[in-house]
Amino acid sequence: MANPYRRVTIPPTLGLVLAGGLARRMGGGDKTRIRICGRTILQRVLDRMAPQCIRVLINANGDPARFDDTGVAVVADSIPDFAGPLAGILAGLDWAVAHAPETEWLASAPGDCPFLPADTVARLHAARLAAGTSLACARSGDRRHPVVGLWPVSLREDLRNALVGQGMRKIELWTARHGIGLADWPDAPFDPFFNVNTPEDAAKAEDIAQRYLAA
Questions:
Q1: At 149, which helix (H) or strand (E)?
Q2: Using one digit for the tens of pLDDT, what is the confidence trace for 67-87?
Q3: Domains of the chain by range and CATH?
Q4: Confidence (pTM)
């Protein structure tokens, strides 16, 4: 099936939606399928990422066929035992080298973030240029969101060594080695990077969508 989420942006950036978590606080299952005002969180994230990226992938483990309805390629972690977001990012970087070798950048976003800004990728690039770094992540108010990040394909093997050779799992430990630019957003009237981890979060997201977005 042709990927319906293909667009062009500058510089060319591959998008990755991280949906490989275990959703323990939701009782398991795919929390990306929770509906907010009639649309799943996953659909909302894909719709926001698509215009910003040359192509969008989903990182998820288990049976990839459960995402067939999206028409989006699914890449699984190559590192076993649910090693966390860094493993998903590495999977995306590996896919880029194998299937889009001309692409130098990967932008990631969590699959449980229903209000992802439409200018996320552009502002991440602006942040890394302003900081003179090769990495960038989002910040709303005084809170960083390391999973909403920009990753150069050139650091793929460095990341693999950190994960496999050093057992590193925390994103901010690895990014601190290379320096990271911060792309800022306000966190009012709601946090654009609000993520849904519990049934209570889902109810709050529904309220935010109805109150501020009308969709």
A1: strand 143-152
A2: 999 999 999 999 988 889 999
A3: 13-213 (3.90.550.10)
A4: 0.92
